[in-house]
Amino acid sequence: MKHSMFNHAVAMENGGCVLYNFLTGKSATLNILSRDYYDHFEVYGESHPIVKKLIERGFLVETDELETLRQHVMAQCNDGKEMVLTICPTLRCNFGCPYCFETPRNGKMIKETQDEVVMFVQRMVSYYHTETLKVVWFGGEPLLECEIIRSLSKRFIDTCEKTGVKYKAAMITNGYFLTPDKASMFEECNIRHVQITMDGPISSIHDKTRHLIGGGGTFDRILDNIKNFKGRSNILVRCNVHRENAEYYQQLEKMLMDISQETGQKITVVAGHMIGNNAYEDKSFSIPEYVDFYKDTHEGIKRIQYKGPFCGYPMAMDFVIDEQGYLSKCLESVNHSQEIVGHVRCFEPSSSRMSYADEWQAVLASAWPQEDEECMQCKLLPVCLGGCPRRRRMGEKQCSGYKYVLDDYVLAAAKRKSRHGNE
Ligand code: SF4
Ligand code: SF4
Description:
By secondary structure, the protein is of the alpha/beta class. The mean pLDDT is 91. Helix 5 packs parallel to helix 6 (146-163). The protein has a domain at 2-62 and 369-420. Helix content is 36%, strand content 16%. The chain is globular and about 70 Å long. The longest helix is centred in the N-terminal third of the chain and has 18 residues, at 111-128. It binds iron/sulfur cluster (2 copies). The site of one iron/sulfur cluster (SF4) has 9 residues, from helix 15.
């Protein structure tokens, strides 16, 4: 028996401590007496009621936690139950945002590539016995190519109906063309979630970073579109927070919550951190600055624990498909030829016959930061898993922001627990 390597203890003035476990997300407040049971569990023995409770809650463990977690992560990455495809019908965009990580390209997905995308989905779903197909429409700006989205959606929905696979869809759009007439298309295409970016609650802030190519504001039109949106899709508004707009974040959140109440439209607002954005480096928050920012918002105290692989990058059934049919593993990899893992025409689930086999194997292996000794001893490993796997492969390590505020986080989590009851 030993203390879990994922425990973090914050000492209290009364001699007790607050414990948090980053694998399970469980916390406990120990008084001076129960802390002694935790510190010296060997003396009291496993059958002592307090020691027993600490074992049940995962603060004391017997297993090799690192190996168990590794196996769990790798199994989840290779589990094909859910296929997630981010599809870019075009890489063209009507916006010219200064921080955009994409390189636009003219053209759109031609009919032959669309056919190959459908056959790719059919092959993969049958190979992995997939239960759910989730499609995220992205670009460029996806609403520039509504006909492709309609046609492919219909074919995906038909395939799913025939094979008993559940179909879900979402869209990431800049919101400019999200006019009320799109409601029927969203309904037809089963698009239930729409993500839009708004960088401020007034045009003079938002338009600085979200303007049309060659200039021209977009705030008023996006706001009108949100207010007039008719349909069953939930709207998620992402605000890319940086040094020049952070002070307006809460005002934006309030404005959108008011609209949500007035219209009955479900709207959620989240703050996004532009980590490692070279194009916007001088205005981007450093990690400690961002941590300071989110400590002051509700996001600072959400429960954190192991929730699966860091993102879709190392997952075997998660792909980004560009308009030419090339497959990559992250939105930031689109249009980067060295990061391609295959083409929809010829991608084979059994990697040995693939032309991009080395890149594919390296991507899958990136799920677990075995090579990094610091990560292998880190309390936050279940939450962070070594951070963005793509950047890690490029030699850029980015620790979780929580690492800089561990004590604060654990105390805030304990406070929240005392408000909301047992966790
Ligand atoms: S965490 Fe990294 S690899 Fe994953 S989606 Fe984000 S940028 Fe891509
Ligand atoms: S990247 Fe940093 S915070 Fe994340 S697991 Fe590794 S050492 Fe911990």
